[in-house]
From TrEMBL:
Source species, domain of life: Bacteria
Name by which UniProt lists this protein: Acetylornithine deacetylase
GO molecular function: acetylornithine deacetylase activity; metal ion binding
Keywords carried by this UniProt record: Hydrolase, Metal-binding, Zinc
EC number of this enzyme: 3.5.1.16
Amino acid sequence: MTTPADCVELLRAMVRFDTVTPSASGRPEAEGELGAWLADFARRWGFHTRALPVAGAAPNILITCECGHDAPWLLLDSHLDTVGVEGMTIDPFGAELRDGRVWGRGAADTKGTGAAMLWALHESAAAGALAWNTALLLTVGEEHLQPGAQSFAARDLPTLGLRPWGVVVGEPTGMRVVAAANGYVRARVVTHGVAAHSSTPERGRNAIVDMARVISRLQSEHVGRRPAPHPLTGAGSCSINLITGGTQINVVPEQCEVRLDQRITPDQTPEQALAEMDQVLQRLREEDPTLRVSVAAAETAAPLPHDQNTAVAEWASATLRGAGQDGSIVGAPYTTNANRFAQFGLRCVVIGPGDIAQAHTAEESIGVEELHAGVRGYRALLETRDRS
């Protein structure tokens, strides 16, 4: 593959790599080829690169450029994986350039931010304009559980000798500054019955029938309840989205399971959300002591708290506005790598070119002018030191 001549060509080259996230593609190292190619590309520009192992996955790629020993570190992050391509109505890996846009899976979410970050780092370094020692982290697995971000924060960061003043996570925000974001709790609720032959159902206990009562109560007392909205991220949400039960048509089912997806605001914690679900179930247990029902977390991600990120958000907002970008401080209802980094005490904001409405769509794309605006915005951040 030839060396891209500009950021648009870099993005198109990235989109041509199939990096559908391992949980969807079944390929544990789905991002490995793209990560290795970008590392080689960065070394040609004189940057130092490292492959940082992630258990059971392709490695993260860390690209660094130091401008001076006394300068603080700024960490940029962009993920390499994408969601699946089922239902797409364009060639997901064609990277077509037409109508002033780059088309393909990941163009917006979020190879566009990665291309803009790397190109901005190249331009700022070549101009001798870097105000920060800069690390660009290209992470794996963000679309499912964020193992790349978690591995870096827990294992690599304490040993690398750099503690970033702030972290800029790349996602398509229209160059607005996301300083708070919702987290999530994906919970498993299980009813336990007694199996029996369907010719004598009275000898068993039907877990699906029990689950019908549980669903009705959860829907009325938990799913439909809305806590006060957060000033930046809005209200949380909750829905029952999966149900499984039974083994075959002539057996009374001994187990039934539903999965809930609850989006929690920065005013909540995953533990609180689970406790509230269990309180609803406990009232059912008290009404019927023979009911066996349990709730447990299948996956969780803590929210991104606004207060922790105020200094970085205000610096980024002022810097971007000074460079002619939007720069307004907002919140987001979705979860990113920033949620994971924040759990380790890092101050994070989410900023990037493109529109989140394009993410995961059948005709995903990003505008060429949006991409160029991303390069300008990231350059402004790389070349402007916090003075507070």
